[in-house]
Specification:
The protein is mainly α and 165 residues long. 73% of the residues lie in helices and 0% in strands. It has eight helices and no strands. α4 runs antiparallel to α5 (80-107), α4 (55-76) runs antiparallel to α7 and α5 (80-107) packs parallel to α7. The termini are far apart. The relative contact order is 0.13.
Length: 165
């Protein structure tokens, strides 16, 4: 191996080094949490008030968006019935697992835990995937665009709920 190729391989090894390595020595530094006054100054008073949007309200909004989208597809699409049903199934694939997650949150409100949230979110994700697979496999007249559009509309209801606060 020539001197140049050894120098290039050493240079490549240095390229793999990242900022995490540089910060490794400062791991034990304490991070001070924001005080209430600091948080108000940084985020504003309205950002600290509790949200009026509950998980149950988000799920209801997802069902409403799903039904409205399915009706719109059924009325305005060329293939009315298959498009409407595809849209309904796509929205339900999002809203039903969210409903179970909201129910799980409500049932564990006395003793919330991070592990419970993670498990609930995992169940929601796997439930969504399972429902989408069932729709794809079982519904022979599936129209992909209405299903996916309504699924995404129901999924993005969370963002609207966050904006409402």
């Amino acid at each position: 191996m020539s001197h140049d190729s050894r120098h290039r391989s050493n240079h490549r090894a240095d390229d793999w080094r990242d900022d995490w390595d540089d910060d490794a020595g400062r791991e034990d530094e304490m991070v001070d949490p924001l005080s209430h006054a600091d948080a108000v100054k940084l985020l504003g008073e309205s950002a600290l008030r509790p949200s009026r949007m509950t998980p149950a309200k988000v799920v209801v909004a997802q069902f409403v968006v799903t039904v409205l989208s399915a009706l719109a597809w059924a009325v305005f699409a060329r293939d009315a019935a298959p498009s409407g049903w595809s849209a309904l199934f796509g929205g339900l694939a999002c809203a039903v697992p969210s409903g179970f997650f909201a129910l799980r949150l409500w049932m564990s409100r006395g003793q919330p835990s991070v592990g419970g949230l993670v498990a609930g979110e995992a169940i929601k994700v796997f439930g969504t995937v399972a429902l989408l697979v069932l729709v794809i496999v079982l519904y022979r007249d599936l129209r992909w665009i209405p299903m996916l559009v309504t699924f995404l509309l129901a999924l993005k209801t969370y963002w609207v709920a966050l904006a409402i606060r």
